[in-house]
């Protein structure tokens, strides 16, 4: 079965700093999703990547999928306290409806 | 903006009791899901539901679990006889149509079995 490993497991940064989160899959990714989890608010969809080499940006967050479709990164530019939370990468497997989850990366942004 | 809602937010029950977790998916969505997250572990897929039947389920989803869409708006997860190890956060999700569409998640129900 497919496994997703996220690194680092947690990160504490000062406001204004840039940071990168990584997600590595044990198998070629069919679809890769980034979500953010805040307590009491469920999982908030950020971005979806499907094609090798694809890159998407939304506000100060950029997600990339490598050419081999086994690694993705999420980069936050000039982090703010509102970016704090748990960032999860999720993947679909071809022919299956279910999503496979990474364990998440807890981000703390100190003002 | 439409969102998935779940009730209750927290539930405490005694081992062996039945619980029903409720979800209201986004109104025009066709695919529905339940996931769970045991404290400190990854979120795990339980079941997917489409066209009034289970389309896929995991090994976790044994005979103690059932899902239902009783009235066209609610989507429920029933655990017939709860065990201590059923204590977890349960997430409901829904999506509109195709395989590649995004799943939208509810805020979760935290279930504690004593």
Care to describe what's here?
- The complex is a heterodimer of chains A (111) and B (114).
- By secondary structure, chain A is mainly beta.
- Helices cover 0% and strands 58% of the residues of chain A.
- Chain A has strands spanning 4-7, 10-14, 19-25, 31-38, 42-49, 55-58, 61-65, 71-76, 85-92, 99-101, 105-110.
- In chain A, strands 2, 4, 5, 9, 10 and 11 form a six-stranded mixed beta sheet that branches. In chain A, strands 1-3-8-7-6 form a five-stranded antiparallel beta sheet, with no helix packed on it.
- Chain B has one domain: Immunoglobulin-like.
- In chain B, 0% of the residues lie in helices and 50% in strands.
- Chain B has no helices and eleven strands.
- Chain B has strands at 5-7, 10-13, 19-24, 31-37, 43-50, 53-57, 65-68, 75-79, 88-95, 104-105, 109-113.
- In chain B, the strands form two sheets. In chain B, strands 2, 4, 5, 6, 9, 10 and 11 form a seven-stranded mixed beta sheet that branches.
- Chain B is globular.
- Chain B starts with a strand and ends with a strand.
- The relative contact order of chain B is 0.34.
- Chains A and B meet through strand 4, strand 5 and strand 10 of A and strand 4, strand 5 and strand 10 of B.
Which strand-content bin applies to the residues of chain A?
Answer: over 45%
Q: If you consult CATH, what is the topology of chain B?
A: Immunoglobulin-like
Helices and strands of chain B: which structural class? mainly beta
- Average pLDDT of chain A works out at 92
CATH homologous superfamily name of chain A? Immunoglobulins
Shape of chain B: globular
The beta-strand count of chain A equals 11
The greatest interface here is: A-B, 21 and 26 residues
For the structure shown, list the relevant keywords.
heterodimer; A: 111 residues; mainly beta; Immunoglobulin-like; 6-stranded mixed beta sheet; 5-stranded antiparallel beta sheet; 11 strands; globular; B: 114 residues; 7-stranded mixed beta sheet; 4-stranded antiparallel beta sheet
């Amino acid at each position: 079965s497919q496994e997703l490993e996220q690194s680092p497991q947690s990160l504490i940064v000062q406001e204004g700093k840039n940071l990168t989160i990584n997600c590595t899959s044990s198998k070629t990714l069919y679809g890769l999703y980034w979500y953010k989890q805040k307590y009491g608010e469920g999982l908030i969809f950020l971005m979806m990547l499907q094609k090798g080499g694809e890159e998407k940006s939304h506000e100060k967050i950029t997600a990339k999928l490598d050419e081999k479709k086994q690694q993705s990164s999420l980069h936050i530019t000039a982090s703010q306290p509102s970016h704090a939370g748990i960032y999860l990468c999720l993947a679909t497997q071809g022919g299956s409806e279910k999503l496979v989850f990474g364990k998440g990366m807890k981000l703390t942004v100190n003002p | 903006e439409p969102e998935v809602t779940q009730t209750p937010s927290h539930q405490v029950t005694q081992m062996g009791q039945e619980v029903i977790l409720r979800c209201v998916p986004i109104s025009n969505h066709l695919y529905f899901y339940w996931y769970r997250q045991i404290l400190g572990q990854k979120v795990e897929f339980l079941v997917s539901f489409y066209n009034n039947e289970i389309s896929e389920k995991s090994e976790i989803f044994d005979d103690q679990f059932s899902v239902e869409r009783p009235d066209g708006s609610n989507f429920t997860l029933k655990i017939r006889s709860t065990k201590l190890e059923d204590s977890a956060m349960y997430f409901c999700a829904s999506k509109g149509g195709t395989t590649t569409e995004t799943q939208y998640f509810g805020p979760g129900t935290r279930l504690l079995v004593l």
